[in-house]
Amino acid sequence: MRRATIAVSIVRMPTTKISELAGLLKEAPGEVFIQPHDVPDPDAIASAFGLQYLLGRFGVESSIVYEREFEKIDSLRMVESLGVRLSLASDVASIGVEDWIVVVDGQQGNANIVDLGCVAVAAIDHHPLRSDASYRYSDIRPGAGSCSAIIAEYFLDSGETPTKPVATALAYGLFVDTDNLTRGVSELDARMFYRLHAFYDAELIRRLRGSQITLRDLALYAEAFRTVETYGRLGFLRMADADDSLVGSANDIVLSLDEVDASVAYSIRADGVKISVRSLADPVRANDLARSIVSGIGFGGGHPHMAGGFIPADALPQGKSVETLIKHRAITYLESLGY
């Protein structure tokens, strides 16, 4: 008898981004850490939390570390309510040169990413790729409105279902970074928010949205709003010594004025001047405006609709007020656009 031959075809499963990253991290000679930017906001917290869960599903244990305490109350409430486990880097004695880091919602070399002395092998971010970037794995999508949306897509592509806490974190991070799905929203953000809807805790998101400021914040706001000035459609706001998040939140309110299309908020602090820039007008790119203000004396960047910058105290020109410097540079930039 002649033996029948049976053709066997091998189906290769497509490689997903998370499986590629997990495969790389399994080579780590030490521990694996996930590092959001120094003062994590909801988008950074959610991205780190979601990525940590997914890596665990693919056999990679990781820890989330950050540099400075939360500045906004909703970030703290988010961590408490969802059981996010993360540690100040200064409290983790085991961090060493043999450990590997995945940077989320930021990139190594940024002013808001402290160098922990480890190997930054990967970065997942929605800001423009740095010219000096060098990673073994990178997923940089400046067109996305949030990093949470990128991580949410990792779940979708890998067929993994997020837990309710993870889905809630990702939905909230996406929601906040796109200002309630109104700022810099990409097709990816909209699609991922829809996908997450079946899994997140809507009531908890509602409560988090109701925990935006404290009474102390309110007092700072009240004082700052008395300083609001406009030049054409450009608004300015000055704050006393305030943290980065509060400056940005106050600037969002200035931008909501009917008479304002772009806004600059700044806080004069002992170490320098923090600057927040917002824009609703397509010709006025917030990241370019921020760079114009700090040109030659500081650093800045971000997105066309939302950006920031910082001028170190020792770089401030002598004999010229900070208010005059910022307003002159911002107005000059707008006039150069003919706006």
Brief descriptors of the model:
inorganic pyrophosphatase (n-terminal core); 11 helices; six-stranded mixed sheet; Diaminopimelate Epimerase, Chain A, domain 1
Task: Give an overview in words.
The protein is of the alpha/beta class and 339 residues long. It has two domains: 17-209, Alpha-Beta Complex (inorganic pyrophosphatase (n-terminal core)); 216-336, Roll (Diaminopimelate Epimerase, Chain A, domain 1). It contains eleven helices and twelve strands. It has helices at 17-25, 42-57, 73-82, 147-158, 164-177, 187-196, 202-209, 215-225, 244-255, 286-294, 322-336, and strands spanning 32-35, 63-66, 86-88, 100-104, 119-125, 137-140, 229-231, 234-239, 262-269, 272-279, 299-302, 306-312. The strands form two sheets. It has a six-stranded parallel sheet with strand order 3-2-1-4-5-6. Helix 9 links the parallel strand 8 (234-239) and strand 9 (262-269). Helix 4 runs antiparallel to helix 5 (164-177) and helix 10 (286-294) packs across helix 11 (322-336).
Describe the protein's topology:
Layout lengths: L16 H9 L6 E4 L6 H16 L5 E4 L6 H10 L3 E3 L11 E5 L14 E7 L11 E4 L6 H12 L5 H14 L9 H10 L5 H8 L5 H11 L3 E3 L2 E6 L4 H12 L6 E8 L2 E8 L6 H9 L4 E4 L3 E7 L9 H15 L3
Parallel strand pairs: 1-2, 1-4, 2-3, 4-5, 5-6, 8-9
Antiparallel strand pairs: 7-8, 9-10, 10-12, 11-12
Helix pairs in contact: 2-4, 2-5, 4-5, 4-6, 5-6, 10-11
